[in-house]
Amino acid sequence: RREEEENSEDDMDPATKARLSQARAAIALEEEMSADERRESVKARLGATCQGVMEDPEGKWLDLREVCKLCEDRDGAVARLAALSMVLVFKDVCPGYRIRPPTQKELAMKVSKETQKLRDFEAGLLKMYGNFVRVLVRCGGGKGKSRSQRGKGGPDSATALRCLCVLLESLPHFNYRTDVLSALVPHLSHVDSAAADAVAGSIANAIKADMQGDTTLEALHMVAQLVKQNRCCCHPAALSPFLEIRFDEGILALEAQKAPEVLSRKQNRKKRADEREMIRKARAEKEKKKAEKERMKSFGHRDDSDSEEEDLEAQLERDMGEASGRMDNAQKKKMQSRMLEATFEMYFRVLKNAAGANPARGLPLMTPALVGLGKFTHLISVTFMADLMEVFRQLLAGDALTTEQKARCLLTACEVLSGHGEALQVDTGEFHRQLYAMLGQPSSGSSGWGGDSGDSRDGSERNDAANNAGSGNADRGTLRIRALQRFLGGYSHVDQGRVAAFAKRLAGAALCAEPGEAVGALGVSRQLLASYPRTRCLLENERVGTGVFDPHVDDPGAAVGLAAVLWDLALLRHHYHPAVAAAADEVARMPLAGAVPPALGSHAPAELARLHSTTRGDFRPAIPPPKVGKRAKTSVLDRQTSRGGEANVLTPGDKLARIIASENNRDPSAPVVAALRRHFAETREFGVNAGLRAEVARLRRMSIKARERAEERRAAEKAEKAEKAAKKAEKAEKAKRAVANGGAGEKVRAKKSKKKVEA
Q1: Residues 343, 376: contact at Cβ < 8 Å?
Q2: Kindly report the CA angle at 490 between 486 and 492, in degrees rounded to 5?
Q3: Count of CA atoms in the C-beta half-sphere (13 A) of 447
Q4: Alpha-helical regions (H) of 633-758
Q5: What is the tens place of the pLDDT at every residue in 689-745?
Q6: How far apart (Å, rounded) are the C-alpha atoms in residues 111 and 107?
Q7: In angstroms, rounded to a whole number, what is the distance separating the alpha carbons of residues 752 and 162?
Q8: Helices (H), 358-514
């Protein structure tokens, strides 16, 4: 390596040589520093180097050599900083295509300086990227380290795993993708792996960004091989990334809906014979061409198909096709078919393991497999649906599944039958019996019916978040309500007796279920009673049907449901949760005949169960806080006596009072009698005191009212006096104006008479 570096330094430009010499001088100085000072120096040098490379990748890519060396430093903090810096640089610098190493013929050709510079940059970048990936795989891979690898430096396993996840999400198209995936996938092999969620998230993001499908197919093959090797004992998040696969339904759905060709025994024999004949002829033609080529080569002839020019042209066409980012329909169909085949092979392997003699402990992959089957059920071929339903029957009849997994299995079976599986003649009686038996198991609050979900099998519930279209973040009660709604409300031809038995058992299950489940169960019961009018006889006060209802039978057809009475609604109408009480009252008030008005609200029963679920510890809808009123100044006893009541004090009865007052029990030496006399004396005093306090409070209120009335009277008198004074002043003013007007008139009349005399 040193010889290669010395030879490459001879071809460097002066600026690059100067930067390398500065880096070496800084390294020599850092060797004499303390650990903290060296870390600060390395941090500054890393920032300057990475910034320069990101500004001019093709001109300064050689500066990354020192950063690559720091990734294997003995100091864990330095190696961590260098690894994170390299990840950021590669995210920004790596091209959006796979780098193909040049052939010997291409290296011998003369090219321009720009092309040669680009070749050197791509070759050096690919080499450093490969070395960096190998360091990360050694430090953070899922497999154990060898003895020679333990002594080498590098980042810690968490940092290395984080860097591998970022590289897979950011550069899924780049080289060494297989190495990155092979290092991440083994982390999914452990049920209790803490890194499994991060790895599953990175694979899911890579699948979302995959447009060609090659990354998805490679991840599918690796995870399928992991599931096969570990016998389906992997982390539940191992299958969750593949829910993000985007299948082209226009291509695959038509193939899945094609009915199998029905041939007679003679036609099948003829078809197999024709296929064998075609294979024999193709092999004979291939051997004939190969012998002809060998014969022509013995004479010195060279076939044009073996020329390097044609191989290079084919390679160039493949490279141009990859660069265009588009696939023709044939390639796309082939890729989609391979992905679909790998996906269902993995799901069916999990189901086969669960139905086998030695299933995996806890069946951690059962729930994600059922979620995936429910999502891609429209792509399952009709030829496999009958076998799939038979496997579902075996799983439901056995004891390997938990109650939650049985509910999920029932829901998946209903989704399979509601699609193009309707063409199958499937007897749903076994599914109804399993669902009816599941309703009969006691509920244990948040852990659901059966109470057996406290083990490691509940870890698969984390994958419900990935199935947004299916159940979202559904808890166990919501999941069961969805199964009930789909299996009972989705079919129009169900026996009336079975429907009545289900309605009765739903009402009984709501009595001991948490409020969310109870509301959903009552909603499903209302739908059943509304869809089947004959079953409304359950709302009668007395038994109407013939026979006797048997609540202990787990077969709805044999329980005689039409002879039951929904007395459970009378108890549910007094439920502590207002939503449950309202739902029970709504079911109880249904008319016995005729049309049924629509339910209050527009939510489905499963949505109602989710909205009112209390499994997370909160009361929904939230209880309004009490109104904060003005605190009374008087005591409770005063408030009680002020309302006209008597003081609530303890007084002795007549018989006990006679015993205390008798002459025989007046002996002061008897401690019990003395204590009773003292107690009841104090009690009487307290009663008198309470009466006096009540009287004082009454007098205080009377004095306050009298004072208020006196003040009102004085105010009224004062206002009346003021009004009289104002009226009197107004009259005096009017008199003054009248006198003033009268004196002026006399003067005018005197002047007029004087003028007349003079005239």
Answers
A1: yes
A2: 150
A3: 12
A4: 636-642, 654-661, 671-758
A5: 888 888 888 888 899 999 999 999 999 999 999 888 888 888 888 888 877 766 666
A6: 9
A7: 124
A8: 366-375, 382-397, 403-418, 429-440, 476-489, 496-511
